[in-house]
Design a protein that fits this description.
four-stranded mixed beta sheet, 4 helices, BirA Bifunctional Protein, domain 2, about 230 residues, alpha+beta, globular
Length: about 230
């Protein structure tokens, strides 16, 4: 597959963290702490995980009054964008990158993350696209991956969420990412029946390639997301 012209191959080693299903708020705090403590020599990291049901509100949609929606907690966060939903059966990839070190801007990173998902879907013969002014990835007009970033001290955190096989009902309680009536889809509804562990390995492969990373030599990557 021909790679887009925007990509620079840096072959920088990245550390992968695969904690499984973890609560959102302590993960958010851990990303902030990691970014505050990192030095120019700190390796970049990718955290691939799931969250229990939670709505997260970005800076664009912040109102400060909601605590729950249909009994699902709302967490206020510092990423860009509006409200979205995370839950079991959705893969979340947090990208902790020293953007200054590689000379990347936010747009470059957004494009690379979107392309990783587009590549993954193309491998299953699904045509996906990005939209100007509405970060994320769309298939057949429905959103399959949400994206939101924060850049602080020249480093990124937060990342993307890819719907694999989950209960999509909570998306109907909100305007996903601030767009009322935006349809939402997932891999299983597009005919791709993969468990989350397999989809996670595929997503990591595309992320590592599009972001110009290498990973430490290892026999396999075990993703703690249920049966293989």
């Amino acid at each position: 597959m021909t790679r887009p012209a925007h990509q620079s191959i840096l072959n920088e080693e990245v550390l992968l963290r695969l904690p499984g299903r973890v609560d959102y708020l302590p993960t958010f705090r851990a990303m902030q702490n990691f970014t505050s403590a990192r030095t120019p020599d700190t390796p970049d990291e990718i955290w691939l995980l799931e969250h229990p049901p939670v709505f997260t509100m970005g800076l664009k949609g912040r109102c400060g009054t909601l605590t729950h929606v249909h009994e699902i907690p709302v967490v206020y966060t510092d990423r860009g964008g509006d409200m979205t939903y995370h839950g079991p059966g959705q893969l979340v990839a947090y990208i902790l990158m020293d953007m200054n070190r590689r000379g990347w801007g936010a747009k470059h990173l957004v494009t690379a993350l979107e392309q990783a998902v587009i590549n993954l879907l193309a491998a299953h013969h699904i045509r996906a696209e990005r939209r100007a002014g509405a970060p994320g990835v769309y298939a057949g007009g429905a959103k399959i991956a949400s994206l939101g970033l924060r850049v602080r001290q020249g480093a990124s955190y937060h990342g993307l969420a890819l719907n694999i096989d989950m209960d999509l009902t909570p998306f109907s309680y909100i305007a996903p990412c601030g767009y009322p009536g935006q349809p939402v889809t997932q891999l299983v509804d597009l005919g791709v029946r993969q468990n989350t562990a397999t989809a996670g390995r595929n997503l990591l492969e595309e992320l590592v390639r599009e972001l110009g990373y290498t990973v430490p030599t290892q026999a396999s990557i075990h993703l703690p997301f249920g049966p293989e």
